[in-house]
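S.,

Sequence below, as promised.
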Amino acid sequence: MKKWMCALVVCMAVLDSHAQVADSAKRFIRLDGTVNFRDIGGYATKDGRHVKWGKIYRSDALNRLSDNDLKKLQDLDIGFVADFRGPFEVKAAPDRLPAGTVRISLPAGSEHIGDSSNKSLGLQLPPDSSLVSFYRNTAPFRERYRPVFDALLGLQAGNALLYHCTAGKDRTGIATALILYALGVDKTVIVQDYIATNVYRRSANAKAIPAMVKGYGMSEKVAGNMMAAREEYIEATFSSLEEQYGSIDNYLEKEMGLNKAKRKKLQALYLAE
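The prediction came back faster than expected:
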């Protein structure tokens, strides 16, 4: 009976992920050099509005962008890019961006990610919770994400904002969750957007996991857990914020600077009827 129930839960999770992808296919932007570039627009809010299209984008690494991709970014009016990667990641794979694009580096919490000298990384991570602790560690969030909210509040009219990390899953996933929550999107929808990354990154993960096993000496199970976008990961962030601040709304006000006036302005800028 337990095995049957577990199989049902897994099946439902896969169906939810695919349903979200089917619903948001128009959010996916196909580029030569990325696999997880998406517009976060179109989502309905709890008060009946929806997130504006063409204003806020999320992505994986941008180092492989082709010349055609750069033209597409120009056509999307992306004038500001926030990069959550640490120095090792940036050095190994520097962004390719259109001329004139403002890029800000926000490496808080990522200082040692991509350090190839740390061969024992995989041995330090428990196989079933390797990222739960990462998602619960909110200490870097203020330095990493508050500048993104500041940029959204001050973005020039006609411009769009893009933020990214390496896979477009963890640091980018948390950023998306906080932004959508601040805009009033229901948490269930936010979780679905997060786990949709599993579908977009399926082929890329199939290549990345063996490389992680070889490069860091970790088990295939640990590598698979690290590359997966699992519901309990993003829920760990939500629960950690609620435990520390009483509510996510309190957190957004205290640490992201979104008092009532700024929250209202953010929603006025990025929501439509």
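Residues 1-15 have pLDDT under 50 and may be disordered.

Coffee later?
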